[in-house]
């Protein structure tokens, strides 16, 4: 059917509201970078506690992913997003008011649960509701809101830097504002038509699909969904590892783990530590977080324009190979104590934002057959957060011992990631989720 027949304003609106969970993901991801110097003074954090306090978000995210899978299958994607928004708001208050280190860590763990739910449900919801020719761009909105959250949070952290010893409390407490906006947006969202059809609510699913693309589009989608759905059964996690879908699941896990172990998130989370190690003052350290956030935003916007034109695989290959080379230069710059390292770290952020950051989420939302999509996405995203925990927890310890040579490790991982993408990842551009599911099962 003609692409002009689609209600692009409505599609964009529901994609953006769902992706507001990404903003809060970006907030909790970035706020620690500006607050960490204050937290180290407030709670006396050494390398171990700094790593744990930062990385504990990932362990909470793993719990959130597991909860999200059950909630979204049984009660719908929309209700899962509402729960995530509520968790975000409560945990922001908990971190801001924490009297001791243990309370803060528990609240950050809880924030991670909200991050985990949103990181799984937002891209999955958008992938299920967006037409095939727009899916890559719409799912990438989730990454766009993540980087907007990172940038705005970095700017706010910088503005609060001289407001006193309790500046960190304001940094975390302000998370209540976007949490409320996300809750309101999720309340407005329609339920996923694919989930509705799966539970037999075809009339409601049809109404949403008609609003998206008209009567013919709704008829075609429902026929396609029904043809692939069969009898709806509760999916067990054991089904995710059935031989028919195992290759796709292993690719999803591999992509998720690589997106984290490629190392770029240490630049986001430990900007102040890296620049302090070469003698940059605290104001300069926090200013670098703003530069990083701005570059991240610009190149994420570019990625949204390219992901449905160039395809997923070319962008992933360029990103993995580019990071492997840039890290080698970063090692040399850090070893020399040169502040010019900023340009190479910003280049690495640009490469990541253009490729691995958004495209990994797009692929994870696309490559699993419908019957196991929720459970398989859960497995992949749990793997991502476990890899994130390992990366973020180990970096302060490794950097204290290896200094600049730490980035040699990440360069080596990127070389392996390039080979993995070249050999195992297939292009998904322009295909419906059902077509991709058929191809996976046939393969």
Percent of residues in beta strands?
Answer: under 5%
Main beta sheet: strand number and arrangement?
none
Quick one: overall form? globular
Please report the total strand number as a whole number. 0
Overall tally of domains: 1
Count the DSSP helices.
Answer: 20
As a percent range, the share of helical residues equals: over 70%
Mean pLDDT: 86
Whole-number radius of gyration? Answer: 21 Å
Helix/strand order, N-terminal first: HHHHHHHHHHHHHHHHHHHH
CATH superfamily: MFS general substrate transporter like domains
Distance between the termini: 28 Å
CATH class: Mainly Alpha
Low-pLDDT runs of 5+ residues are none
Structural class determined from secondary elements: mainly alpha
CATH architectural label? Up-down Bundle
Examine the coordinates and then state which fold CATH places here, giving the name of the CATH topology: Growth Hormone, Chain: A
